[in-house]
Amino acid sequence: MTAIFPTSSPSISLSSSPSSSPVRRRPTSGTARAALAQYLATHDPLSAVDLSVPERTWVRVAHGEDADIWLITWPAGSSTGWHDHGSASGAFVVLEGQLTEYVWTGVATATTLQSPGVREFDGSHIHDVINHGVRTAVSLHAYAPSLAAMTRYELVRGRLQVTGVEQRETW
């Protein structure tokens, strides 16, 4: 997979070693997008994917001070349910197939992303991602700062209600 992303972040550290930069900026969706670009420049995430697994799967494939990278497979019909990413901003790229993202802004709006579609979001973003396609989709996600918690929601009578908060330890 070859992908080129324009980035505005100076440098992203995906290793676990401390940054030599004396100035630390708060990570943003641009940081997440740059982390995706850096990861894709040196890795082929599709080479390790099993498209025959019947459930949605996710694995953290890289982590560092600035961002975590997750690879997710989406069999037809699978979804995340309504959720946010705590205070983390993020970005994801569809590597294979297509995904529909429903974003909550008081109402749900939908956008379908096909490979190599990229989506960026800030820390206030609430969404549900679904594979409405007929074949397995694959996406690569980056969260900055590292994903520590996710709030789950349920749509009840036209409003989102919190159903729980998942901490990193449960993934």
UniProtKB/TrEMBL annotation:
It comes from Nocardioides baculatus. Keywords: Dioxygenase, Iron, Metal-binding, Oxidoreductase. Pfam families: CDO_I. SUPFAM superfamilies: RmlC-like cupins (SSF51182). Belongs to the cysteine dioxygenase family. The lineage of its organism: Bacteria, Bacillati, Actinomycetota, Actinomycetes, Propionibacteriales. Residues 1-28 are annotated as: Disordered. Residues 1-22 have a biased composition (Low complexity). GO terms for molecular function: dioxygenase activity. InterPro entries: CDO_1, RmlC-like_jellyroll, RmlC_Cupin_sf. This is Cysteine dioxygenase family protein.
